[in-house]
């Protein structure tokens, strides 16, 4: 049995989970998310918990058991609390500026980069060197943050670029001297 898959998903107060055929829909105060269950996986509701079960012991079904439980848990946390990632823009002249439709990044190129986020993700420019990505879908928040980071990843010699707030940039020692 999967260690993660056999753990029940508890539903906090204010969150509703609806199971219809092979789709699980979780809705809360921040929004609504749904997930289509893969073949061989079933979900049962017992009061304020969801139990994820598998029909067979095939390798593919076993591997999807824990994955499905983790995805449903992330949906429950997303609609109740939400997810957030903070990015730091570091470097001389590097900055982020909020515009009407998105965020403009000046990160050392000859042109500014306009980034328009998806509808369910919000970008907040706290100050010109700090951008917060937030939303209810954990995967989408991480994907948007990774896309923004890819505009100018942190340089290993100078540390300039866009990095996550909790990221440790591995620094190299430059030239050793003559």
Descriptive overview:
The model has no long low-confidence stretch (mean pLDDT 92). The protein folds into 2 domains: 9-80, Ribosomal protein L6 (Outer Surface Protein A, domain 3, Alpha-Beta Complex); 83-164, Ribosomal protein L6 (Outer Surface Protein A, domain 3, Alpha-Beta Complex). It has 178 residues and is of the alpha+beta class. 19% of the residues lie in helices and 37% in strands. The strands form 4 sheets. It has a 4-stranded antiparallel sheet. The protein contains 2 helices and 13 strands.
| Amino-to-carboxy terminus distance | 61 Å
Shape: elongated
Mean residue pLDDT:
92
SSE pattern, N- to C-terminal: EEEEEEHEEEEEEHE
Number of helices: 2
The largest β sheet comes out as:
4 strands, antiparallel
CATH superfamily of the largest domain: Ribosomal protein L6
Kindly state the number of beta strands.
13
Secondary-structure map:
Blueprint: E1 9-10, E2 16-20, E3 23-27, E4 32-36, E5 41-46, E6 49-54, H1 59-80, E7 83-90, E8 95-98, E9 103-106, E10 113-115, E11 121-127, E12 130-135, H2 138-149, E13 161-164
Antiparallel strand pairs: 1-6, 2-3, 3-4, 5-6, 7-12, 7-13, 8-9, 9-10, 11-12
What characteristics describe this protein?
alpha+beta, Outer Surface Protein A, domain 3, 2 domains, 2 helices, 13 strands, four-stranded antiparallel beta sheet, 178 residues
Short note summarizing the structure:
The protein is α+β, with helices and mostly antiparallel strands and 178 residues long. The protein has helices at 59-80, 138-149; strands at residues 9-10, 16-20, 23-27, 32-36, 41-46, 49-54, 83-90, 95-98, 103-106, 113-115, 121-127, 130-135, 161-164. The protein is 19% helix and 37% strand.
